[in-house]
Protein backbone atom coordinates (compact mmCIF):
# COMPACT_ATOMS: atom_id res chain seq x y z
CA UNK A 1 0.00 0.00 0.00
CA UNK A 2 1.38 3.38 -0.97
CA UNK A 3 1.63 6.56 0.98
CA UNK A 4 -0.10 9.81 0.01
CA UNK A 5 3.39 11.12 -0.62
CA UNK A 6 5.18 8.89 -3.10
CA UNK A 7 8.53 9.53 -1.44
CA UNK A 8 7.20 8.32 1.92
CA UNK A 9 6.15 4.84 0.84
CA UNK A 10 9.35 3.10 1.94
CA UNK A 11 9.36 4.81 5.34
CA UNK A 12 5.71 3.90 5.69
CA UNK A 13 6.40 0.23 4.95
CA UNK A 14 9.13 0.03 7.56
CA UNK A 15 6.93 1.68 10.15
CA UNK A 16 3.91 -0.48 9.24
CA UNK A 17 5.90 -3.67 9.65
CA UNK A 18 7.11 -2.59 13.07
CA UNK A 19 3.68 -1.41 14.17
CA UNK A 20 1.75 -4.49 12.95
CA UNK A 21 4.10 -6.79 14.80
CA UNK A 22 3.89 -4.79 18.03
CA UNK A 23 0.11 -4.46 17.74
CA UNK A 24 -0.62 -8.18 17.32
CA UNK A 25 2.10 -9.57 19.58
CA UNK A 26 2.13 -7.05 22.41
CA UNK A 27 -0.65 -4.51 22.46
CA UNK A 28 -3.61 -6.85 21.94
CA UNK A 29 -2.21 -9.23 24.55
CA UNK A 30 -2.22 -6.46 27.11
CA UNK A 31 1.54 -5.96 27.18
CA UNK A 32 2.01 -2.28 26.74
CA UNK A 33 5.59 -1.65 27.72
CA UNK A 34 6.10 1.16 25.27
CA UNK A 35 5.95 1.50 21.53
CA UNK A 36 9.23 0.35 19.92
CA UNK A 37 8.45 2.05 16.64
CA UNK A 38 8.88 5.65 17.81
CA UNK A 39 11.90 6.54 15.68
CA UNK A 40 10.48 5.01 12.52
CA UNK A 41 7.21 6.80 13.11
CA UNK A 42 8.87 10.20 13.52
CA UNK A 43 10.77 9.90 10.24
CA UNK A 44 7.69 8.70 8.40
CA UNK A 45 5.57 11.49 9.91
CA UNK A 46 7.87 14.28 8.80
CA UNK A 47 7.64 12.98 5.26
CA UNK A 48 3.84 12.68 5.34
CA UNK A 49 3.34 16.16 6.81
CA UNK A 50 5.39 17.63 4.02
CA UNK A 51 3.43 15.72 1.38
CA UNK A 52 0.10 16.83 2.82
CA UNK A 53 1.16 20.47 2.80
CA UNK A 54 2.42 20.17 -0.74
CA UNK A 55 -0.78 18.58 -1.94
CA UNK A 56 -2.91 21.00 0.00
CA UNK A 57 -5.05 18.31 1.61
CA UNK A 58 -7.52 19.96 3.99
CA UNK A 59 -7.25 17.94 7.16
CA UNK A 60 -9.04 19.37 10.14
CA UNK A 61 -8.63 18.80 13.81
CA UNK A 62 -5.64 16.54 13.66
CA UNK A 63 -2.57 17.53 15.57
CA UNK A 64 0.60 16.01 14.29
CA UNK A 65 2.07 14.41 17.34
CA UNK A 66 4.52 11.67 17.92
CA UNK A 67 3.49 8.32 19.42
CA UNK A 68 3.78 9.46 23.04
CA UNK A 69 2.33 7.16 25.63
CA UNK A 70 -0.09 8.21 28.35
CA UNK A 71 -0.48 11.86 27.44
CA UNK A 72 -1.88 13.98 30.26
CA UNK A 73 -4.70 16.37 29.40
CA UNK A 74 -4.34 19.97 30.54
CA UNK A 75 -8.04 20.78 30.74
CA UNK A 76 -9.89 19.29 33.71
CA UNK B 1 -13.09 -15.12 13.69
CA UNK B 2 -12.00 -14.07 17.15
CA UNK B 3 -11.86 -10.36 17.93
CA UNK B 4 -8.03 -10.21 18.03
CA UNK B 5 -7.80 -11.66 14.52
CA UNK B 6 -10.41 -9.27 13.14
CA UNK B 7 -8.83 -6.24 14.80
CA UNK B 8 -5.35 -7.12 13.53
CA UNK B 9 -6.76 -7.57 10.02
CA UNK B 10 -8.69 -4.31 10.22
CA UNK B 11 -5.47 -2.42 10.97
CA UNK B 12 -3.97 -3.89 7.78
CA UNK B 13 -7.11 -3.77 5.68
CA UNK B 14 -5.60 -2.13 2.59
CA UNK B 15 -4.76 -3.12 -0.06
CA UNK B 16 -7.38 -5.75 -0.76
CA UNK B 17 -9.19 -6.70 -3.95
CA UNK B 18 -12.61 -5.61 -2.66
CA UNK B 19 -11.53 -2.00 -2.25
CA UNK B 20 -9.54 -1.29 -5.39
CA UNK B 21 -10.18 2.43 -5.19
CA UNK B 22 -8.11 2.87 -2.01
CA UNK B 23 -4.69 3.81 -3.30
CA UNK B 24 -2.97 5.21 -0.24
CA UNK B 25 -3.07 4.89 3.52
CA UNK B 26 -1.12 7.03 5.95
CA UNK B 27 -1.01 7.31 9.71
CA UNK B 28 -1.31 10.93 10.74
CA UNK B 29 -1.15 10.35 14.44
CA UNK B 30 -1.09 7.43 16.78
CA UNK B 31 -0.90 7.30 20.56
CA UNK B 32 -1.98 5.26 23.56
CA UNK B 33 -4.11 7.32 25.93
CA UNK B 34 -3.97 7.29 29.71
CA UNK B 35 -6.54 4.48 29.90
CA UNK B 36 -4.50 2.21 27.63
CA UNK B 37 -6.53 2.66 24.47
CA UNK B 38 -4.76 3.00 21.13
CA UNK B 39 -5.91 5.96 19.04
CA UNK B 40 -4.98 6.15 15.39
CA UNK B 41 -5.75 8.91 12.93
CA UNK B 42 -5.35 7.79 9.36
CA UNK B 43 -5.72 9.36 5.97
CA UNK B 44 -6.98 7.19 3.14
CA UNK B 45 -6.58 8.29 -0.47
CA UNK B 46 -9.07 6.97 -2.96
CA UNK B 47 -9.14 7.14 -6.72
CA UNK B 48 -12.45 6.50 -8.42
CA UNK B 49 -11.32 5.74 -11.94
CA UNK B 50 -12.39 9.01 -13.49
CA UNK B 51 -12.02 8.92 -17.27
CA UNK B 52 -8.70 10.35 -18.36
CA UNK B 53 -10.27 13.08 -20.46
CA UNK B 54 -11.98 14.43 -17.36
CA UNK B 55 -8.71 14.16 -15.49
CA UNK B 56 -6.91 16.27 -18.07
CA UNK B 57 -9.62 18.92 -17.79
CA UNK B 58 -9.70 19.26 -14.03
CA UNK B 59 -6.08 18.37 -13.32
CA UNK B 60 -4.95 15.10 -11.79
CA UNK B 61 -4.44 16.42 -8.26
CA UNK B 62 -8.17 16.90 -7.90
CA UNK B 63 -9.26 13.36 -8.79
CA UNK B 64 -8.43 11.87 -5.43
CA UNK B 65 -10.88 11.95 -2.59
CA UNK B 66 -9.65 11.54 0.93
CA UNK B 67 -11.13 9.84 3.93
CA UNK B 68 -10.14 10.69 7.44
CA UNK B 69 -10.37 7.79 9.87
CA UNK B 70 -10.12 7.77 13.65
CA UNK B 71 -9.92 4.39 15.34
CA UNK B 72 -9.80 3.45 19.01
CA UNK B 73 -8.73 -0.02 20.15
CA UNK B 74 -9.39 -1.01 23.75
CA UNK B 75 -7.48 -4.25 24.40
CA UNK B 76 -8.98 -4.72 27.87
CA UNK B 77 -12.66 -4.31 27.00
CA UNK B 78 -12.00 -5.76 23.53
CA UNK B 79 -13.64 -3.14 21.40
CA UNK B 80 -12.47 -1.48 18.25
CA UNK B 81 -14.29 1.60 17.04
CA UNK B 82 -13.70 3.21 13.68
CA UNK B 83 -15.09 6.57 12.66
CA UNK B 84 -14.47 7.84 9.19
CA UNK B 85 -15.59 10.77 7.15
CA UNK B 86 -14.66 11.81 3.68
CA UNK B 87 -12.78 15.00 2.95
CA UNK B 88 -13.18 16.29 -0.54
CA UNK B 89 -12.39 19.47 -2.30
CA UNK B 90 -16.01 20.16 -3.15
CA UNK B 91 -17.56 19.24 0.20
CA UNK B 92 -20.79 18.55 -1.59
CA UNK B 93 -21.56 15.11 -0.23
CA UNK B 94 -20.19 13.82 3.01
CA UNK B 95 -20.39 10.31 4.33
CA UNK B 96 -19.66 9.62 7.97
CA UNK B 97 -19.30 6.01 8.98
CA UNK B 98 -19.02 4.39 12.35
CA UNK B 99 -17.97 0.77 12.85
CA UNK B 100 -17.62 -1.10 16.11
CA UNK B 101 -16.02 -4.55 16.41
CA UNK B 102 -16.69 -6.53 19.57
CA UNK B 103 -16.36 -10.20 20.52
CA UNK B 104 -19.61 -12.15 20.12
CA UNK B 105 -21.13 -12.37 23.62
CA UNK B 106 -22.09 -16.04 23.28
CA UNK B 107 -19.46 -17.34 20.87
CA UNK B 108 -15.96 -16.13 21.77
CA UNK B 109 -14.51 -17.29 18.44
CA UNK B 110 -16.65 -14.81 16.59
CA UNK B 111 -16.73 -11.07 16.28
CA UNK B 112 -19.74 -8.79 15.91
CA UNK B 113 -19.60 -5.72 13.71
CA UNK B 114 -22.13 -2.91 13.96
CA UNK B 115 -22.00 -0.31 11.25
CA UNK B 116 -23.82 2.94 10.66
CA UNK B 117 -23.50 5.62 8.05
CA UNK B 118 -24.78 9.18 7.84
CA UNK B 119 -25.01 10.75 4.42
CA UNK B 120 -25.31 14.51 4.12
CA UNK B 121 -25.47 16.90 1.23
CA UNK B 122 -24.09 20.32 2.09
CA UNK B 123 -24.78 19.72 5.77
CA UNK B 124 -28.42 18.65 5.31
CA UNK B 125 -29.37 15.00 5.80
CA UNK B 126 -30.75 13.40 2.68
CA UNK B 127 -34.15 11.73 2.72
CA UNK B 128 -34.74 10.94 -0.88
CA UNK B 129 -34.12 8.51 -3.71
CA UNK B 130 -30.46 9.41 -3.69
CA UNK B 131 -30.21 8.51 -0.03
CA UNK B 132 -31.83 5.13 -0.74
CA UNK B 133 -29.35 4.51 -3.53
CA UNK B 134 -26.37 5.35 -1.39
CA UNK B 135 -27.75 3.37 1.54
CA UNK B 136 -27.92 0.30 -0.70
CA UNK B 137 -24.36 0.88 -1.79
CA UNK B 138 -23.26 1.29 1.81
CA UNK B 139 -24.96 -1.92 2.93
CA UNK B 140 -23.43 -3.86 0.05
CA UNK B 141 -20.15 -2.21 0.97
CA UNK B 142 -20.61 -3.49 4.51
CA UNK B 143 -20.68 -7.01 3.08
CA UNK B 144 -17.67 -6.13 0.96
CA UNK B 145 -15.93 -4.95 4.13
CA UNK B 146 -16.49 -8.32 5.74
CA UNK B 147 -15.19 -10.07 2.61
CA UNK B 148 -12.19 -7.74 2.59
CA UNK B 149 -11.28 -8.68 6.16
CA UNK B 150 -11.71 -12.39 5.32
CA UNK B 151 -9.23 -11.88 2.51
CA UNK B 152 -6.74 -10.12 4.77
CA UNK B 153 -7.10 -12.82 7.46
CA UNK B 154 -6.44 -15.55 4.88
CA UNK B 155 -3.41 -13.66 3.61
CA UNK B 156 -2.01 -13.28 7.14
CA UNK B 157 -2.59 -16.98 7.84
CA UNK B 158 -0.88 -17.95 4.59
CA UNK B 159 2.12 -15.82 5.54
CA UNK B 160 2.33 -17.53 8.91
CA UNK B 161 2.08 -20.96 7.28
CA UNK B 162 4.79 -20.09 4.80
CA UNK B 163 7.04 -18.90 7.59
CA UNK B 164 6.38 -22.04 9.69
CA UNK B 165 6.96 -24.32 6.69
CA UNK B 166 10.29 -22.72 5.87
CA UNK B 167 11.33 -22.88 9.54
CA UNK B 168 10.37 -26.57 9.60
CA UNK B 169 12.33 -27.13 6.41
CA UNK B 170 15.39 -25.49 7.92
CA UNK B 171 15.09 -27.58 11.08
CA UNK B 172 14.74 -30.80 9.06
CA UNK B 173 17.87 -29.95 7.11
CA UNK B 174 19.92 -29.26 10.20
CA UNK B 175 18.63 -32.42 11.90
CA UNK B 176 19.64 -34.46 8.84
CA UNK B 177 23.07 -32.83 8.89
CA UNK B 178 23.45 -33.62 12.59
CA UNK B 179 22.45 -37.27 12.00
CA UNK B 180 25.02 -37.52 9.23
CA UNK B 181 27.76 -36.16 11.45
CA UNK B 182 26.90 -38.58 14.25
CA UNK B 183 27.30 -41.59 11.97
Please tell me about this protein's structure.
The complex is a heterodimer of chains A (76) and B (183). Chain A is mainly α. Chain A has a domain at 6-55. Chain A has helices spanning 9-25, 38-55. In chain A, α1 (9-25) packs across α2. The radius of gyration of chain A is 14 Å and the shape is elongated. The model of chain A is unreliable at 62-76 (pLDDT under 50). With 183 residues, chain B is an alpha+beta fold. Chain B has one domain: Alpha-D-Glucose-1,6-Bisphosphate, Chain A, domain 4. Helices cover 38% and strands 36% of the residues of chain B. Chain B is built from three helices and seven strands; from the N terminus they run αββαβββββα. In chain B, β3 and β4 (79-87) form a beta hairpin. In chain B, α1 crosses α3. The longest helix of chain B has 54 residues, at 129-182. Chain B is globular and about 55 Å long. Chain B starts with a helix and ends with a helix. In chain B, 20% of the residues are buried. The mean pLDDT of chain B is 80. Chain A binds chain B through residues 1-5, 8, 12, 15-16, 19-20, 23-24, 27-30, 32, 35, 41, 44-45, 48, 52, 55, 57-60, 62-73, and chain B through 4, 7-8, 11-12, 14-15, 22-34, 36, 38, 41, 43, 45, 61, 66, 68, 73, 75-76, 87, 89.
Quickly list its features.
heterodimer; A: 76 residues; mainly alpha; elongated; disordered C terminus; B: alpha+beta; Alpha-D-Glucose-1,6-Bisphosphate, Chain A, domain 4; seven-stranded antiparallel beta sheet
Amino acid sequence: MNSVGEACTELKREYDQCFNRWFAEKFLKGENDGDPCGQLFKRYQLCVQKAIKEKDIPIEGVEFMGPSKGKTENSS
Amino acid sequence: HPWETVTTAAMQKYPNPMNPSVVGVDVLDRHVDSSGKLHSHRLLSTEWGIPSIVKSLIGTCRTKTYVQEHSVVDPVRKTMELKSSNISFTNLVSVDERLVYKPHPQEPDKTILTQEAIISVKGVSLSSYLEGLMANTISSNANKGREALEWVINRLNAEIEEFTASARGTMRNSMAAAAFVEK
